[in-house]
Amino acid sequence: MNYKITLLPGDGIGPEVVGEATKVLDVIANKYxxxxxxxxxxxxxxxxxxxxTSLTDEALADSKDSDAVLLGAVGGPxxxxxxxxxxPERGLLALRKGLGVFANxxxxxxxxxxxxxxxxxxxxxxxxxxIVVRELTGGLYFGQxxxxxxxxxxxxxxxxxxxxxYEIKRIIELAFKLADGRKKKVTSVxxxxxxxxxxxxxxxxxxxxxxxxxxxxxxxxxxxxxxxLITSPASFDVIVTENxxxxxxxxxxxxxxxxxxxxxSASLSESTVGLYEPIHGSAPDIAGQGIANPIGTxxxxxxxxxxxxxxxxxxxxIEKAVDAVVSSGAKTxxxxxxxxxxxxxxxxxxxxxxx
Length: 355
Ligand code: IPM
Ligand code: MG
Description:
Layout: E1 2-10, H1 14-32, E2 35-40, H2 45-51, H3 57-64, E3 68-73, H4 88-99, E4 103-109, H5 122-125, E5 129-135, E6 143-151, E7 154-160, H6 165-180, E8 185-190, H7 196-211, E9 216-221, H8 222-231, E10 238-241, H9 243-254, E11 264-268, E12 274-278, H10 295-307, H11 312-327, H12 341-354
Helix pairs in contact: 1-10, 1-12, 6-7, 8-9, 10-11, 11-12
The structure holds 3-isopropylmalic acid and magnesium ion.
């Protein structure tokens, strides 16, 4: 089969990790007789530098017109001026909204050979296998009004936390569907003791829970959830939550896996087009050195094969290869090792070819 994949390497270490991940996809294409047609576009700071905007209409149109989009990372100190008209992150939000990718899946597993890379006690990390389902196109990130104004000589800033019932319903239904193929437990995270949007969220979650009696549903306040992620991470299966809570909790959860560099993400829409990206950022401090961990991006490619291209076998081949390489003790700098980005990818490719 032929597939069109848009690459948005972005800024910082983005091009380095995407470059290695596409090599892995090429190996899969060869082995299983697929054709992946890559089209590369600028997005983020590099797009601001070249076109004066963080996401051009063409880059968005080309992304929409492909089977899947693979993104590296965006941002960096160069574009951090708080008064700038445009920022790399704005391009990312416009892309998510434009593609309609409302569901951000962030799986967090602790690999046995990386238990020592996490600051948590090993016994806490046993059996940790979580998937966080973060709502991605609503909430505080997008709610209107969003503005600053002068009121009686004082400056006032406003962000709005807004949700429609259908936005909550579709994300929670997706969480239930995922839980059905796993340990059948959904933890819905909200702040229903304070926020109206959370009270609606909780009500909708309860209704969906009633319709799915074989799935265990629990409601947890976000502050409690953040504590439980450290004290008893193995008690979670599927976590579903609104955009900003999910942003914060997934950075916290990534610590369990030993390094942010390990973790992939998939952002899904109502159609099959998906956006795939590692959860780490552009890491300007190590950009250009060729030492970033490519595993988060390579595992994001596996998610792309699974969810957008429907190539489950190929997805598993990548995941097994990563697993084997990590088990063998291979480590990049973030994990306390010495492998370069390329060497780590080459190890993974070797396993895929041997498979
Ligand atoms: C993430 C990032 C983004 C977010 C930034 C870069 C806009 O932190 O994907 O988690 O806040 O969603
Ligand atoms: Mg984040």
